[in-house]
Write a structure and sequence with these properties.
This protein is an alpha+beta fold. It has 3 domains: about 100 residues, no CATH class; about 200 residues, Electron Transport, Fmn-binding Protein, Chain A (Pnp Oxidase, Chain A); about 110 residues, 3-Layer(aba) Sandwich (UbiD C-terminal domain-like), CATH 3.40.1670. The chain has 12 helices and 25 strands. The strands form 6 sheets. Strands 5, 6, 7, 8, 9, 10, 11, 14 and 19 form a 9-stranded antiparallel sheet that branches. Strands 21-22-23-25-24 form a 5-stranded mixed sheet, with helices on both faces. Strands 1-2-3-20 form a 4-stranded mixed sheet, covered by helices on one side. Strand 7 and strand 8 form a beta hairpin. The radius of gyration is 24 Å and the shape is globular. It starts with 9 loop residues before the first helix and ends in a 30-residue tail after the last strand. It binds flavin mononucleotide and manganese (II) ion. The site of flavin mononucleotide has 19 residues, from strand 8, helix 6 and helix 9.
Length: about 500
């Protein structure tokens, strides 16, 4: 099952193409916030949204259903209306379909990864700064101090060995104390009690530098977590950009208009006015408590670590909020992380090798570890330069395969065919040992210790100059089988 083309038959694809409105820019008809996007789906793509009205257990039951649907090749949005212990519905799987991510940018549902990457990259190049407004829906309810009770939120436990109940789709907003530039990223939060969490901010995340700057100065780190927004906001906030970039301006670029922000009540930060729920918090300096294990994106558990503790000072939310969850280690998480790094990799590779046509991070590589590059090779050696550029662009890449322009890089089988028939391993590959990779790579040299040291391999699978002619039958293009094949008469 290719999760980039979830369950679409050729016939459905044709029908969608006929119905598809032209790319509208912004978010098209898909609304401005999470509930607007869900309304759009319910009206125009009702087959993509399910409500579960029976009560479900937040421990494993919701995720068992999602895991089963995944096995069946089905990736609808699933809204759990009644989760035991909470009155707030849980929205899951919003990003589990490539088609929905394309529609969130106002693209037709038939847009493929290549069109998506172009459009995403174009918008990234034109950030739209946010605006601060006086109030917004996320201020309808304000709970402070003792009123804060994290048990009111329907947090889930996802995988068998997970250490507890987690928030997996909350964007933590912090400000760099030196520049005042805000930063947003998802860092998982494990509920500890009524008002504290454990947090995992990877060494590779900007959030890590910002938190460490505060801690070195002996200060708490103010942070605010916003939950539930339009998928375009998610796509923008996860843009693969430098520390100095304001993710809110990237979110604006994806929305096609400035993201509206409101000031927090108890921390010096601003958060999206149209979010569903906001948690205003501080990271306590110099305190560490055990956090995890937690089922992570490679499909293995991230190890238990001594991680910082987050104190929640206030919750603001809508009157009837929706709580959004992401199923880490599954398409909802993998696709979102994959499509948001493609444009940056493509830009870097194109600078190094101008005849590059496209890049792709296939779901078979968890949308993270493997990169395919398609190029029209004009000079020998270029594929290796392209591979070096990809490795430089994205530290998580471990395997880069470069193929000719007639190889379909959305199709693993075609890429494997090129590797099988066009590679002399001694001259067409290179290896970089002991380089920085993903801290969660299960094949790193010390996965239990959270090691990120990995060995990287590049493969030039393009045809070389003395490559023999490939077989083809003259006339194949023109022939019409219906002129030849007469159905048997009954
Ligand atoms: C569903 C989901 C869960 C994630 N969980 C974590 C996490 O627990 N810790 C982390 O450091 N990064 C996590 N990430 C990745 C970061 O959010 C992502 O790399 C982000 O761009 C980091 O932002 P920053 O570099 O501005 O801090 C997650 C991403 C997604 C899509
Ligand atoms: Mn950042």
């Amino acid at each position: 099952m290719d999760i980039m083309e979830p369950g679409l038959t050729a016939e459905q694809r044709e029908r969608l193409k006929a119905e598809a409105p032209p790319a509208a820019g912004g978010t098209g008809q898909t609304g401005r916030d999470l509930r607007g996007f869900l309304r759009f789906l319910e009206e125009h793509h009702p087959d993509q949204v399910y409500h579960v009205t029976r009560e479900v257990d937040p421990r494993f039951e919701a995720t068992a259903l999602l895991a089963k649907l995944e096995q069946q090749g089905r990736f609808p949005v699933v809204i759990f209306d009644r989760v035991k212990g909470s009155s707030i519905p849980v929205v899951t799987n919003v990003h589990a379909s490539f088609q929905r991510l394309a529609m969130a940018l106002g693209l037709p549902p038939t847009a493929g990864p290549r069109e998506f990457t172009r459009e995403y990259g174009r918008r990234e190049d034109r950030p739209i700064p946010p605006v601060i407004v006086d109030s917004g829906p996320v201020k309808e309810v304000i709970l402070k101090g003792d009123e804060v009770d994290l048990f009111q939120l329907p947090l889930l436990t996802y995988h068998e060995q997970d250490a507890g109940y987690y928030i997996t789709c909350g964007y933590t907003v912090m400000k760099d104390p030196d520049t005042g530039i805000p930063n947003a990223g998802i860092y998982r939060l494990m509920r500890r009690d009524r008002n504290t969490f454990g947090i995992q901010i990877s060494e590779t995340a900007h959030g890590h530098y910002i938190w460490k700057k505060h801690e070195r100065a002996g200060k708490p780190t103010p942070m605010a977590v916003f939950i539930g927004h339009h998928p375009a906001v998610h796509l923008g906030c996860l843009s693969f950009s430098p520390l100095e970039a304001d993710e809110f301006a990237m979110a604006g670029a994806m929305l096609g208009r400035p993201l509206e922000l409101v000031r927090c009540e108890t921390v010096p930060l601003e958060v999206p006015a149209d979010a569903e729920i906001v948690l205003e918090c501080e990271i306590e300096p110099h305190r560490r408590e055990p956090e995890a294990p937690f089922g992570e994106y490679p499909g293995t558990y991230g190890p238990r670590r001594m991680n910082p503790v987050v104190h929640v000072k206030a919750i603001t939310m809508r009157r009837n909020p929706l709580y959004q969850s992401s199923f880490v280690g599954h398409p909802d998480n993998l696709l979102l992380s994959g499509v948001t790094r493609l444009s940056y990799i493509e830009k870097m590779v194109k600078v190094a090798s101008p005849t590059t046509r496209a890049v792709y991070v296939p779901p078979s590589g968890r949308c993270r570890f493997i990169c395919y590059i398609q190029m029209e090779k004009l000079i020998e050696g270029d594929p290796k330069n392209a591979a070096m550029a990809a490795f430089a662009a994205d530290p998580f890449l471990k395997f880069v395969v470069v193929v000719d322009h007639d190889v379909d890089i959305l199709n693993d089988s075609e890429v494997l065919h090129a590797i099988a028939t066009r590679v002399r391993a001694d001259t067409d590959t290179f290896m970089v040992t002991h380089a920085r990779g993903s801290p969660l790579d299960p094949a790193s040299y010390d996965p239990a210790g959270g090691s990120h040291i990995v060995t990287k391999v590049a493969i030039d699978a393009t045809r070389k100059s003395n490559y023999p002619d490939e077989i083809r039958v003259p006339g194949t293009e023109e022939i019409n089988p219906d002129d030849y094949l007469v159905p048997l008469k009954k």
